[in-house]
From TrEMBL:
Residues 271-332 are annotated as: Disordered. GO terms for molecular function: phosphatase activity. Residues 353-408 form the GCN5-related N-acetyltransferase-like domain. InterPro entries: GNAT-like, HAD-like_sf, HAD-SF_hydro_IIA, HAD_sf. PANTHER family: 4-NITROPHENYLPHOSPHATASE-RELATED, D-GLYCEROL 3-PHOSPHATE PHOSPHATASE. One of its GO terms (cellular component) is cytoplasm. Signal peptide: none annotated. It comes from Actinoplanes philippinensis. Pfam families: GNAT_like, Hydrolase_6, Hydrolase_like. This is Haloacid Dehalogenase Superfamily Class (Subfamily) IIA.
Length: 412
């Protein structure tokens, strides 16, 4: 079982919007992938920032799409927010609810009293996404917070994925209050906070959980914060350009077009393990000017945005150009990325799945052809070690088309 990606994990925690479905339409192949995990006895959980549905509603929605799901497997930011409020407030305390009926119900079931105006003197405001949220309730929330109520946001996703493109998410509605109040929420409950993932892992007693999501700034950052491996699927919000530009604390372990990657070898989706400066206790990694030194080799000194080579003390990068090894200024990226490897360094970083990458001064050129995901993985080995996304050029026709389709800035 462990020859495929999911086989290396004892729990798979799925985000929902952009991973399993888009709003209310199932993503092709998702139901089958989840059923296949179940038939292989891999425990499953669902962790969603969307606060507009309760766990039982989410389970029913999933089941209606052909994905068997139990309410106990579903963690929502609405449920987590209500649980947190109940922990911190006296029973029956008035809480102003900005959001969907589901959030109101969670607050009520947690033993608190949902209210709808500032006159009810709420001690807290809890704000989650709801399609009916309008100016009036936002105005009440503004008044309540200004009067001293604590402000909880279920999540701050700026957008919701939809078949018509990203739509305003709770983060956009939180921004209304943030603008009116001139300050941030007191508490944000959902991803990228690690709470939902940690609760899912604890409930399953998982030692090696995998998080699967479509957003770098929530799912993937939450997984990094929770210390979990993660898979980014390109069926939702975050795209290739986002991944290439991802800061170290938003870099997934794997990337794939969709969930079918769970049943293929892990090495086909693995990303370069660089830039984990968020990882605790690795003092040898020193980010300098937005660029990290290499993988624990204290001799590596990044200078002027370019890394030094793989432990060769004679190689000293100067002014953004590496000193070459006899072939002029043209240095293969593998010299930079060596030791950062894929699957135990078996795959050289100059080539992957039919693609080839060369570095010419501070520019990288992608040549050849192959799958878009392989090209993306190969390019991440360059951009995650300091190459700007604007410095990526397509050499072959296919590479040029691909780079263009990703809407990367053209190299000049
Ligand atoms: Mg999502």
């Amino acid at each position: 079982m462990s020859d495929h990606l999911a086989g290396g994990y004892d729990l798979v925690v799925f985000d929902l919007d952009g991973v399993v479905f888009l709003i209310d339409k199932p993503i092709p192949g998702a139901a089958g992938a989840i059923d296949r995990l179940r038939s292989g006895a891999t425990p499953i959980a669902f962790a969603t920032n969307n606060a507009s549905r309760r766990a039982a509603d989410v389970a029913a929605l999933l089941t209606g799409m052909g994905v068997n799901a139990e309410p106990a497997e579903v963690l929502t930011s609405a449920g987590a927010a209500a649980a947190l409020l109940a922990e911190r407030l006296p029973a029956g305390a008035p809480v102003l609810v900005v959001g969907a009926e589901a959030l109101r119900a969670e607050v009520r079931d947690a033993g608190l009293t949902p209210v709808g105006t500032a006159e009810d003197e709420p001690v807290a405001v809890v704000q989650g996404y709801g399609p009916e949220v309008g100016w009036k309730i936002l105005a009440e929330a503004t008044l309540a917070v200004r009067a001293g109520a604590a402000w909880y946001a279920t999540n701050t996703d700026r957008t919701l994925p939809s078949p018509r493109g990203p739509l305003p998410g709770n983060g956009s509605l939180v921004a209304v209050l943030r603008t009116a109040l001139g300050r941030d929420p007191d508490v944000v409950v959902g991803k990228p906070q690690p709470g939902l993932f940690r609760t899912a892992a604890a409930q399953s007693r998982a030692q090696r959980p995998l998080a699967v999501g479509d957003r770098l700034d929530t799912d993937i950052q939450g997984a990094v914060t929770a210390g979990m491996d993660s898979l980014l699927v390109l069926t939702g919000v975050s795209g290739p350009a986002d991944l290439l530009a991802a800061p170290a604390d938003r870099r997934p372990t794997y990337v794939a077009a969709d969930l079918s990657a769970l049943f293929r070898p892990a090495g086909e989706s693995r990303l370069p393990a660089v830039g984990d400066e968020a990882r605790p206790g690795d003092a040898a990694r020193l980010p300098v000017s937005g660029v990290e030194s290499g993988s624990g080799d204290g001799a590596r000194l990044p200078v002027s945005g370019v890394e030094s080579g793989s432990g060769d003390g004679a190689r000293l990068p100067v002014s953004g150009v590496e000193s070459g090894s006899g072939d002029g200024a043209r240095v293969p990226v593998s010299e930079v990325g060596a030791g950062l490897g894929v699957s135990g360094d078996e795959v050289p970083w100059t080539e992957l799945g039919g693609w080839r990458l060369t570095r010419d001064a501070d520019r990288v050129t992608l040549d050849g052809s192959g799958s878009p995901v392989d090209a993306l993985r190969l390019l991440c080995s360059a951009t995650w070690t300091g190459v700007a996304t604007s410095a990526i050029t397509g050499g072959s026709d296919e590479a040029r088309e691909l780079v263009k389709s990703w809407n990367l800035p053209e190299a000049t």
